[in-house]
Amino acid sequence: MNGPVIGRSLPRQDARDKVTGRARYTVDLTMPGMVEGRVLRSPYPHARIVSIDTAKAARHPGVMAVLTGADLSDIDPYFGQAVRDQPVLAIERVRFAGEPVAAVAAVDALTAEEALRRISVEYAPLPVIRNVDEALAPGAPQLHVDRPRSTLFPDVQDIKPDVTRNICHHFTFRRGDPAAAFAQADLVFDDTFTLPSIHHFPLEPLGAIAHHQGSELTVWTGTQYPFAMRQALAEMFGLPQSRVRIVVPYVGGAFGCRELIPAAPIASVLSRKCGVPVRVLFSSEETARTSSRNAGRVRIETAVMKDGTLIGRRGEIHLDTGAYTDQGSRVSKKAGYRIIGPYRIPHVDVNSYAVFTNTVSAGSYRGFGTPEVCWAYESQMDIIAARLGMDPFELRMKNLLKRDEEYAQGDRPIDSDLDQALEMIAKEVGWHATRESGEGAGLACAIKDGGGTRTSSTAIVRLHQDGSATVLASSAEIGQGVQSVLGQIAAAELALDPARVTVTAPDTGVTPFDQRTNASRATSLLGHAVQEAAARVAEQIRAIAGEALGVSAEACRLESGGVTANGQRLTFGQIIQRFFRDAGGELIGHGYQRPATGLNALGATASFWEIGLGAAVVTVDRETGAITLHRYVSLSDPGRAINPAGVEGQDLGGAMQGLGPALFEAMVYDDGQLVNGSMIDYRLPLFSDLPQSFDALIIEGGGGPGPHGAKGVAEGSIITVAPALANAVFAATGVRLRDLPLTPERVWRALREAGPKSPPTGARR
Amino acid sequence: MNGPVIGRSLPRQDARDKVTGRARYTVDLTMPGMVEGRVLRSPYPHARIVSIDTAKAARHPGVMAVLTGADLSDIDPYFGQAVRDQPVLAIERVRFAGEPVAAVAAVDALTAEEALRRISVEYAPLPVIRNVDEALAPGAPQLHVDRPRSTLFPDVQDIKPDVTRNICHHFTFRRGDPAAAFAQADLVFDDTFTLPSIHHFPLEPLGAIAHHQGSELTVWTGTQYPFAMRQALAEMFGLPQSRVRIVVPYVGGAFGCRELIPAAPIASVLSRKCGVPVRVLFSSEETARTSSRNAGRVRIETAVMKDGTLIGRRGEIHLDTGAYTDQGSRVSKKAGYRIIGPYRIPHVDVNSYAVFTNTVSAGSYRGFGTPEVCWAYESQMDIIAARLGMDPFELRMKNLLKRDEEYAQGDRPIDSDLDQALEMIAKEVGWHATRESGEGAGLACAIKDGGGTRTSSTAIVRLHQDGSATVLASSAEIGQGVQSVLGQIAAAELALDPARVTVTAPDTGVTPFDQRTNASRATSLLGHAVQEAAARVAEQIRAIAGEALGVSAEACRLESGGVTANGQRLTFGQIIQRFFRDAGGELIGHGYQRPATGLNALGATASFWEIGLGAAVVTVDRETGAITLHRYVSLSDPGRAINPAGVEGQDLGGAMQGLGPALFEAMVYDDGQLVNGSMIDYRLPLFSDLPQSFDALIIEGGGGPGPHGAKGVAEGSIITVAPALANAVFAATGVRLRDLPLTPERVWRALREAGPKSPPTGARR
Asked: Which of A456, A501, A588 lies closest to B583 in CB terms?
C-alpha cells in the first residue's frame, strides 16, 4: 500500500465474484427443506373478484399451500412504501393486469405452476382507466376509496389523497409573486412535454426466500431497502423488528425497482402456512408488472426578460402513478420541487399530481422526479435561447445558481460550482468549435437535492486483534461499489490497508440500521456514519497507545496499521492485546448520520446537491429519422472522489442507461394490457448504441457532507441525456421534439412536418 | 411482563426450535454447489507413512479433490490450541489410531467413501506408547521432537515440552515450607487415585462446512470457540481475520469437545482445492477418536494435625494427554493449581505433568483439571476423617476457606460462603439424621477458579426504532441457555420485555469478539459486556429523552420500553425517531469485559470462584457390587441467578453427566486401539440411572463479577459426583475405592477383599 487511500481507484470488492460467476444471487440460494412458490395474476386491469375456487389446486399432489387475499385476515395484509395500500394478494378487487390474486407453494416449481392452472377465479370486469386524462375525467370510476393505513416514511405522512378524483398526491410549491412576474416578463414560454412509463429491467428479476417459523421471520432478497422491508413485514405479521431478519445477497441490478420486493410478503405468508422456507421467484415478465417509472406530462411556463434573465416559472405536472401509491406521492413532490432546475428563478408556482390508473404501479427509478422535469426545463431552455437568438450555453451561464446561493428557502445552499461545470463540459465537447455540417450539439444541466429527504444511517466498525477490520453497514451492493468505498473510508480513518477491511452485506439481524440504498446517498451519508465509527475506534487506539507509550493520546499518530509516537511504535494487534491483557479482543466503534436540520418545501433540507451535466453531438438521418450519437460527455461533482474509477463508472453507467428512455424505451399498453413487458419486446440500450466517444468528467468541488467533502453521484448523468439529445437534434435539424422517446419514426414525422431547413436561428453557431 | 426481569425463570430462546425439531444443526445445512468430504484415517496408533498413492482415488468418477499432508505445503498446515502441533492431515508420521491421513471431496458421500477405499497407504509401524509409564520409561520413542510453532492462548506461551521425555507440559506450584509442614504433621496421608480417559459423546458428532473462495473463507460449524477457530484458520491460510468467517449453527452437545473442530480445516483445504463448499461430517465413531478427557493418576499427600487441621499438601499428577497437545498443557496446570481444593492448606508442593502417548488427544472436558484432583482430595478427606474418627462433615467445616480468604497469592479472594453451602447441603440430604441400615451417605466439595484464565468478551446492543433490541454476542448456544440469559441481562438494563430482545448466534463476520464459550463464563463475563453495551444505549436514551422533556438525563427513568420523567413519558421508538429526526435509526452501544488484573501461579487471577458441592446416599448390593444411588443433592452458587430454572438445569445436567465417569465410563484401549469408541459399546448415563431423589440447591451469594453479582455455574456439579459416591460407598460398606469408574465388578472385588464388616469407624454415625 502506497500513498493515500482516499482518491485511489481500487477494484470493487464484488468484482472478482461477479466476473468469475461465483457471486450468489437470490436465485442461487437454497435452504434446507425449501419449497417453491408461484403467483397467479389477474388477467384484467380492473375487475371485481366474484369468487376464487382453490379446492382443486389444494388437492393437487405436491401442493403445500394455496392462499388468496381472503386467507390473510389474521395479519395486516397490506404493504406499500409511502402508503400501505397494496394487498399482498388482491382483496375483492384487482387494479392492474398482473396483480397477484393467489399464491401456491409446492414441492417444486412445475407442481406449483400446475396448481396455479387449477385455481378458478371468476372476475366481473370494471371500466379501465388507461391514463391520467381518463382518471381525472368527471364520472371516472374511483380506484381507491379507503383511507391510507400508515406509512413507512415520515415525510409523506401528510398525504391526503383526493379520493373523489383518483389523485394519489397533489404537491404545491409557490414562492414570490408569480402572477406579477408573468405580467412583467418580456416573453412567456409555455410548452408541454411528455414521457412514457418505462421499466427498469434489471438482469436479475425480483424474488425472495422467506422462512417464517414461530415468532421469527427471515427473508433473503435482493432489496435496496432492507430496513423498510423489515418494518413492513414486522407490521404485517405483528412481530418485533428484532425478530424479522432481512438478508441481502448479491443483487443483479436495482435502479429503484428493488425497494419493497412484493415477492417477499408472498413468500412469507406461504412459509408461515407451510412451516418451511419458501422461494418465490418472479420471471422477468412478472417483474415488469411489478414497478415502473411513471408516464408524465409536464406543462412548463417560463417568464423571461429580453436579456435572457428568467424571472418566473409555472409548472403543471401530471404523473401516471398506476394502480397503487408505491412511491408515486414522493416522486410527484420531488418533480414539483425540482422543476426550477439549476437556475435562479425568483417567482414560482407549481402543481404536481400523481394520478391513479389501471396500470403497473410507478415508483422509484434512478433520479426519480428529476428526469421528468429536466426533460421539460432543459428542452425549454433551448427554445428560449432560439427565440432570443442567444447561445444556449450563454443563456444557461446567465441564469445558473452560484455556489452558496439559495435554491429555495430553508434548503441547503448550492454546494457545487455550476458555472465551472458548464464551462468545463462545453470545452470538453468542443461547444465553441466549428462543427461538421449536419452535426448538432446539445447541452443539459440538472440539479437534484441528493441523498434522500430526512435520511439516516448507522454503522459499526470492529478492529480485530490482527489489525484487520470489519465494517458493519447495511447498504446493498447493487453494482455501485459501495462496499469498496465504505472500506476505503474506514481504512483511511484507521490508517489501514483497504485489503484488510471487509464490509458486510446488509442483514438486519446483525448489521445496523441504514435507511435505504437510494438517492446516491451511501458514500456520503452512510459513509459519514462509517467514518465516525472508525474515528471512535481510532480514539480508543490513541488512548490505549498513549498510555502504553507514556505520551498523550493526541501525540499518537495512526500509521500503517499501528501507532507511532516519540519514535516508538505499537501495532494495532499489540494495542488490542494490551487493552485486553493478552486475552484477545476487538475494539468497537459506532457512528450515526442524522438528517440535516431545517425545513424546505419537501419537509426536510437536502443532504447535498447532486449535479449532472450532459453534452451530446449527433447527426440525424433525414431519410429514416435515426439519430446517431457521436459523442457524449457527462459531468458530475462527487465533492471528493473517494474511488475515482467508481465515480466514473457510476456516471457513465447512468448516462448509458439514460440512452434508453431518451431513444427507445416505453412500456406500451393496449387497453390496460402491457404488450411489451419482456426483454424480447422491450428495447433496452445495447453496447452498440454507445457513441464512439463517451466520457465522464469529474469536478471535485469538496462541498459534500460526507467524508473528505464527498457527496453523491450516480443519478445526475441519467437525467440530462434526453434533453441534451433533443437539443442536439434541434441544433442539427431545427426540429423540436416534445415527446419521449426520440424514436426514428417520431423524428422522421417531425422532420416531414417541418420541411427541409437549415439549422435554425438560436441553435449553436 | 410483570416483576423484575432478573431472577425470572424464562424459557430458553432455543427451546421451541429444539423440541419441535425445527433447529438446524451443521448436518442440516446445505450450500449451493456443496459437495461432501470424507477422511481416511490411520489404522495404526504409531507409524511412519512410507507412501500414499492417491492416483486411483483421484481418477474415480465424481471425485473433485484428494489431499494428503504432502499437498498442504503452500499453507501452514498445523493447528492446535495451546500449541499448533497437529497437522490437518498427517505429515510423514501418524501418532494415534484414527489420525486423518487423507481427505477426499466428491459429489456425494458414497462416492467420497468409495474413493477413500482406492487410496493406498504404506505404513511402517512404530512401537506404541500405550500409557504414561511407557511414555516416561527410559528409551521410550519420542512422539514430538520439533518445537511448538505458536499458540492461540497467551497464557500457555511459556510451554516448554521436555521433548526427550514425552512431556507435553510440567506445571509446578509451591508455597510455604512443605518439607517442614510434613515433618511437623501429626499424621501424613499418602494416597493414589486413578481415573481413565473418557469421551464426551455429544449427540451431534463433529462436522463442518467450509467455503474457501478467493481471499475469503467461511466455515459453518458447531464450535464453542468461533474466534479461536477464526484465528487458527486465518493463520493457516495467511488471511486477515476479517476475511475468515466462522458461523455457528445450533450445537448438539459440547462439553468441551467442540473447540477447534478438526473437520473445519479439512473441509477448508478441500474447498480451497475444489472452489465449492465442502461438508465434512464425522461419524460418532470418528468423533470419539478426535478428543477425550485425559486418563490420570493423582498421588496426593496431606499433612494433618490430630485435630483435623490440614497443614501441608504434596501432589504428583500424571495426565495421559494422548498424541497431541490440544488443551493438555492447560489441563495439567489447572489440575496442579486446584489440588488444594476448597481448603486452607498453607504449605503446598505440586508437580503436574501432561504426557504424550499414542492415544486420542485429550483436551477440554467439563470442569477440566478439577474432576481429576477432586476425585483424589475429596476421597482422601474421608480417609483422613475415618482415621481421625471425625465426622467428614466436621473435618470439612474445620478446613473450608472462608469467604474473602485468599486461595493463593495473587488470586481473587474466595467469593462464596462455603460453610453455609456445606451446612445447607448436609441439612438437605439429612446428614445428621439416622439412616436406614446399609445406607451410606457421602459428601464432596469442590472449588475451581472459574471463567477461564485471562479471558475477555465484547458485545454490541442495538435498540431498534420499534423499541425491540438485538444483542450481538458470540457465545455458542450449546444447550446452556446463554441466549436467553444474555437477553434477560440486556432487557433488565433497558427496561424491556425480554420477548422483545433477540440474541444472535456467533458469526465472526458480524458478531463481536468473545474469547470462548467455556469455563462457565458466558453469563457473568460475556454478560458483563452485554450489560455495559446496554448501559451505553440507556445512557444515550436518557440524554435524548432529557433534552426532549426538558429535564436532566439523570431524572429520566427507563420503564417498560420508555422513559418517564416529571410525569411525562416517551417510548423508545419516539426517542429514536426524535434523535434521528423522523428518519428512522437505531441506538448502538458496545461493551468490553477485560481480564481481572493480578497474577496468580497460572499467570492470571481467576475471574470468579465456582463452587460445587454434592451429597449422595447409596446402598450397595454385596452380591453383585452394584451401587444404587437413592438420593443426590447438588449445590451451586451462581452469585445471582439471572434465570433460576437455567441455573438449576445446568447444575442437575452436570451432576447427571457426572454419573457416567463415576459409575461406568471409560475409553478402553487395546494396544493403542480404542475398542469401545461407539455409542453401542460405550456406557453413558441413562435416565434410568437417575436417583429417585435428585435436587439442585442454589445459594445466591452475590459475589460474582457479572451483572447483579452473577458468577458461573455448570461445571461445579459434575466434579463432586465421583468422590461423593465413593465416600457414600465407604460409609455403606467400609470399602475405599481409588480407581474410577466404580463398576460393580470393581466394588464386588473390593468387598470380597475386605471381607464382611459393618460400617467402619469414622464413617457417618
From this structure: A456
